[in-house]
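User: structure tokens for this one?
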Amino acid sequence: ATLHTPKTIFSARHAPSWLLLAGAAGAVNGFAFLACEKFVTNMTGTGARLGMDWPDAGIAAEGMVVVLSFVAGATASVLALQ
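Assistant:
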């Protein structure tokens, strides 16, 4: 049984919700960056940090751990669902 169809999910009435969720996520990321002085997001923050500080081997290793953990978690969740 399908809960929602693509027609209902992608209808224009959901656009304000999408914008509010994106804005809330951006606000959380911005405040966390100001508080911690470090990118705290998952993939986007890691990518930005690696792009700015790529010559530093420690940051590169830390970034790779985050990326590999993300991929491993996504893989494990797909395997668990199947």
